[in-house]
Amino acid sequence: MSDLDKALKLAPSTLDRFRLDGKVALVVGGTRGLGQAMALALAAAGADVCIVGRGPAGLEETAEAIRQLGRRGSYFAADVTDEAQVEKMVAYMLETYGRIDILVNSQGIVELQPAESFATEAWQQVIDVNLKSVFLCCKHVGRVMLKQGKGKIINISSVRGFQGRLNDLAYAPSKGAVNQLTRSLAIEWGPKGINVNALAPVFTRTAMAAPFLDDPEKRAWVLSRIPMGRVGELDDLFGPIVFLASAASDFVNGHVLLVDGGWLAA
C-alpha cells in the first residue's frame, strides 16, 4: 500500500481520534479553575470523570456539571499529599469505574517570599502539593495503567517550570521538577503503553488569578510578555487537554506542551 493510499484510508478517522467515549478520567485538583475547566472539557469529549479535591467546596457542584454534559460525574475528597489517601482514591476508582484511562494532575499552590526569609514550612507545603502529590498519584494510578497496558497521564506544569521568578523559591522549582518527573516517567512507562506528558499554561483568567490580573500595572507587564496580546482563557486548555488524553496523541510522550501565547518564545 502506498503512503497516499494509507493516508487516504486513515484520514477519515482524524476527528474520531479526539473522542474519549468509554474512557474514565481522574482529575486531581478538579474543583476550581484550570482543573475544573479541563474536567468539563474531558467530559464534553465523551469521558466519564471523577474529580478530586480536599473538599467539600466545589466537589458536588463540578460533578453535577459533568453530569449535565451527559457523562457520569463523581468526586472523591482526599489530601493527595498523603499516600494512604491516594491509595484509597485509587481503590474508589476501581470499585466505581473498574479502570482509569486518564489521569490529570492539576493540583497546585503558590507562595512568594524573599529568599532569605522564605519560611521553610511554606516551602515544604508548596513542594508537597505541587510535586510530592503528583509523584504519588502517578505512582499509584500508574500501577493500574500498567496492569491495563494503556493509559494517559497529563501533569499540569507552568511556564514557571522553565523560568525563575523574583521571590519564587518553591513554585518555579516545583514545576521544573514536574517537567522532569514527566520526562522520566515517559521513558520508563512509554514502552508499556502509558503516555506521560504535561501542559504548561501561562497566566490564565480564573477567580484565583483575578486579583493579580486586575492590577493594571501587573496586567500590563503580563500582556507585554505575551506576543498574542492577551492572557489565557479557560477554553484555551480545552483542545490541548483533550489532545493529550486522546488517541490523537498516541505517539506523543515525554512532552511539555506550552499553552502560553508565545510567552517563552519572546
Name a few traits of the molecule.
seven-stranded parallel β-sheet, 9 helices, 266 residues, alpha/beta, 43% helix, Rossmann fold
Biggest sheet layout: 7 strands, parallel
Per CATH, which architecture?
3-Layer(aba) Sandwich
In CATH, the topology is named: Rossmann fold
Output the helix-strand order: HEHEHEHEHEHEHHHE
Unreliably modeled segments: none
**How many E-type strands?**
7
Q: How many distinct helices? A: 9
Give average pLDDT, whole number: 97
Calculate the terminal CA-CA distance, rounded to whole Å. Answer: 44 Å
Number of domains: 1
Strand order of the largest sheet: 3-2-1-4-5-6-7
The helix-and-strand class reads alpha/beta
Gyration radius, in Å? 19 Å
Describe the protein:
With 266 residues, this protein is α/β, with parallel strands linked by helices. It has one domain (17-204, 233-265): Rossmann fold. It contains nine helices and seven strands. It has helices at residues 3-10, 33-44, 59-68, 83-96, 120-148, 171-189, 210-213, 216-225, 238-245; strands at 24-28, 48-53, 73-77, 102-105, 151-156, 194-201, 256-259. A seven-stranded parallel beta sheet has the order 3-2-1-4-5-6-7, sandwiched between helices. Strand 5, helix 6 and strand 6 (194-201) form a beta-alpha-beta unit. It is globular and about 60 Å long. The relative contact order is 0.13.
